[in-house]
Amino acid sequence: MQRHLITSAIPYINGIKHLGNLVGSQLPADLYARYQRARGNEVLFLCATDEHGTPAELAAANAGKPVAEYCAEMHKIQAEIAKGFRLSFDHFGRSSSPQNHALTQHFAGRLADADLIREVTEKQVYSNADGRFLPDRYIEGTCPNCGYDKARGDQCENCTKQLDPTDLIEPRSAVSGSTDLEVRETKHLYLRQSALKDDLNAWIDSKTDWPLLTTSIAKKWLHDGDGLQDRGITRDLDWGIPVRRGDADWPGMEGKVFYVWFDAPIEYIACAGEWSDAHGGADWERWWRTDKGADDVRYTQFMGKDNVPFHTLSFPATILGSGEPWKMVDHLKSFNYLNYDGGQFSTSQGRGVFMDQALEILPADYWRWWLLSNCPETSDSEFTWELFQQGVNKDLADVLGNFVSRVTKFCRSKFGEIVPKGGVYGDREETLIAELDARLTRYAQMMDAMEVRKSAQELRAIWVAGNEYLQAAAPWATIKEDPETAAMQIRLGLNLISFYATLSAPFIPDAAQKMNTALQIEKAQWPSNASDALDSLPAGQSFAVPENLFAKISDEDRKDWQDRFAGGRA
Ligand SMILES: [Zn+2]
Question: How far apart are CA 515 and CA 499, in angstroms?
């Protein structure tokens, strides 16, 4: 039995994510986790919300709520939606958890002990009225370039010019509107990533099985220009993990918190601690410490391509710098972007379909299948309502759903709701089994390799093979001349449904569950070969005709949704 630690990039807390976010990390990670569990392997699948930083504070202020309360509510909402999509996290944690506080402070202490942290004095805008330093986007004023009067300290939204807060004309606090601002000196901690450059380089060179895209992004950041830069790990904010050196105070750092980029990936580890505490103290270190049993763990991370530098450099710098035997990532699966109807999905502009809206109009399996079978793997991909309608209607309704319906209903009308006995395989059945064996092997190879689209293609081909067999065997004609052979054909068809349920479950878990329930299968076993799998339902076993697995999307619905989602989300 293999052991798989699987993490999905952790979604930011400030709102509900769109389908592009979903297919860029959480959904393919769930596919892989479900597949590995189905193969009998031990899996720990973790995800969490990323809760610190300025955007969380701003979103809470917009919602008129204290930031801790806002984050707690949004976490609950994101967790519910994840359940709705059947994302099978073993734990969905929070980067604001006490476990992450302690672990982040621990890492900072270890890095300081290793002389990998230096103090830097910087100048930053301080608001006397608010009694706090203001991050760039907390400062508003008039743009020196275009005269827009609500330009932010980091950028003018009107003319898109990048700004420094000191560029703004008549700067004011976005918190209180006060113009009583001054530039003060403040001290921050920097992680000496530059000192870890050789270690990181050697580690990346050891990853000979990584995709070229991943290693080239990492190498670019490592070597281009002046090379990997030291990076600030603290901020002058209230909301975040207080700066401490392990268990001890950090003189001069009172009132400061760690920068969100530093604590967010540490939550991958802390989340295992949260999982343990939620499950009666399960041993989490055997997943994360190579000196405590994690040596045989294979660790896979899923993320969008924009997250690759953090996962290949920044987080590994934290781990390597600690000098402790933490498990490091073995394989990193990154994705391109899913576009929406000729443009981009956009959270800030409310453009596209958001996860809660998607579940309001259709069950999770429809989305899971379409998104995974069209996932932006080797290049960006495009969501349009036409493509979505075509994919769902053709693959799910016409091929899989139709097969299940025809076989079970025909059996009920001719043999009753019982697996019929009699008859022997002929050439047609042997040919089908040979094809399914070859496809089963290839499907497993593609799933092992996390080739999501190729896996979906293979699964679809497995469904199609059954449909074509049924069409050619035509038990509705056979039964008039040769009821025994018709019984064999239908028994094979019922076994195929069971075969499909097992293989399809990682993609469409609800439909798979319905198929298994109809066939009274409690615990599905991953098939070792098609021949045995298609002989697993004993003649005489009863079953129940399931309800239609998938409804077709009508042109009317499609147009309706197209209109409804044409404007931005309110
Ligand atoms: Zn401007």
Answer: 10
